[in-house]
Amino acid sequence: MQPESEPKPEHGRATRIIHNRRHKDSLGSPYSPVYNTTTYRFADTASLQNVIEGKTPGNLYTRWGSNPTIRELEQGLAGLEDAEDALAFSSGMAAISSTLFAHGREGIVCIGDLYGGTQELLTRHLQPLGIPVAFLLQSELDQLTEALNSPGMLVYCETPANPTLEIMDIRDLAQQAHARGALLAVDNTFASPINQQPLSLGADFSIHSATKFLGGHSDITAGAVMASAERIKPIALWRKNLGQILAPETAALLSRSLRTLPVRIRQHNDNAMAVARAMESHPAIKRVLYPGLPDFPGHHLASQQMEGFGGVITLELRGNREQTARVADSLRVFLLATSLGGVESLVSQPCVTSHHGISRQERERHGITDSMLRLSVGLEDSKDLVADLQQALDQL
Ligand code: PLP
After folding, report:
1. Distance, CA of 292 to CA of 306 (rounded, Å)
2. pLDDT in tens, 363-388
3. Using an 8 Å Cβ cutoff, are 275 and 389 in contact?
4. Is 117 helix (H, G, I), strand (E, B) or coil?
5. How far apart are CA 327 and CA 167, in angstroms?
């Protein structure tokens, strides 16, 4: 049989993703079998004890993360962002919560806009547990040093942020955090590892809702964290004890999705740019928020720290909440559904979906208006997406 191909460090990312494999298959299958098992048989108690005590490598129990299919996925996830290690989770919120429990207990300072679920976790669960949580707008960054008032705190942000696409300066935040003995976690869901590499810009954690672009087909719920091996260890313990592991079948599906990630993201980028440009001149639209547009406030920074601008656009319409909903309801190619990052285009109104759980006052503080529609631009022909938006906007 032809010798097995091995991913090499000098290979490009797409080559490394496609050839990521931990197991040699004696039957010649190019991909590893799915280890759809929760437990593993041992020859004797002494060998079992050696694995439990970490003296010999081995698999023990899938909830602990010791499953070859899950470890292979994690090797692929780490490779995507040149991280020492990665963990896969049952959802993006699982990845976020375990990271915050493991590294945020001394206090968390959030910068800019956050996904509504993350904000809810912070305010409804972590704050009542006594974990200090502060929220700063990007315009309040001069207060960051003061907010980092005890050692071992965590700075947390999304960039581009949900739903305003606000861009945070990862390099600058990392420097400021490290200068105060804090760590920086970046939710990289909107960008994807193809467009942005937070760890190489200085962040300590890159977090993903793998339900979105990493999964890419709106058919799996999963999460991921990439970081150094030392920082991954305590997160793995929280994942184990909160029971946040994903099923091996889901891990195999996610590994399959990663093989097409570079090509999918390139097309998401191209389609979103085409849609954003077409929407700029439409009279029913007040603002097109897309980091790829030269007059977008964060465009310059995005051009420096991103390789592509992603597949999410937010449109602010000249209309009220009901009129905006009517436009969403009139779309036929864009599906009226919350989520993003799949092959199909989706539309949602943040005030009734992703940011429904946030008070109006808080939404206003973050510039999230009732007239916003968030578009997840999929992989359809961009001319069909533009035509769909035009016919719906014409009804305004
Ligand atoms: N982070 C961001 C930026 C998101 O948009 C979402 C969900 O929409 C999450 C995290 C949570 O991910 P999940 O739904 O996979 O738990």
Report:
1. 10
2. 888 889 999 999 999 999 999 999 99
3. yes
4. helix
5. 27
Angle at 191 between CA 184 and CA 219, to 5 degrees: 110
CATH says 13-258 is which class?
alpha beta
Q: What is d(CA 361, CA 392) in angstroms, rounded to the nearest whole number?
A: 29
Per the document, the length of the chain is 396
**Residue having the nearest C-alpha atom to atom 13 of ligand 1:** 92
Distance in Å, CA 58 to ligand 1 centroid: 32
pTM here?
Answer: 0.96
Taking domain 261-393, whether its CATH number is 3.30.465.10 is answered by no
Q: What is the DSSP string of 145-196?
A: HHH--STT-EEEEESSPTTT-----HHHHHHHHHHTT-EEEEE-TTT-TTT-
Cβ 346 vs Cβ 324: under 8 Å: no
Q: Is 162's C-beta closer than 6 angstroms to any atom of ligand 1?
A: yes
Q: Establish whether residue 117 lines the binding site of ligand 1, counting it when its CB lies within 6 angstroms of any ligand atom.
A: yes
Torsion angle in degrees (nearest 10) through CA of 12, 14, 20, 26: -110
- What is the residue extent of each domain of the chain? 13-258, 261-393
User: How many Cβ atoms sit within 10 Å of the Cβ of residue 296?
Assistant: 21
> Would you call 187 a catalytic residue per the annotation?
yes
Can 55 be counted among the known catalytic residues? no
CA of 222 to the centre of ligand 1 (A): 9
Q: Is 93 in the pocket of ligand 1 (CB under 6 A)?
A: yes
Q: pLDDT by residue (tens digit) across 95-154? A: 999 999 999 999 999 999 999 899 999 999 999 999 999 999 999 999 999 999 999 999
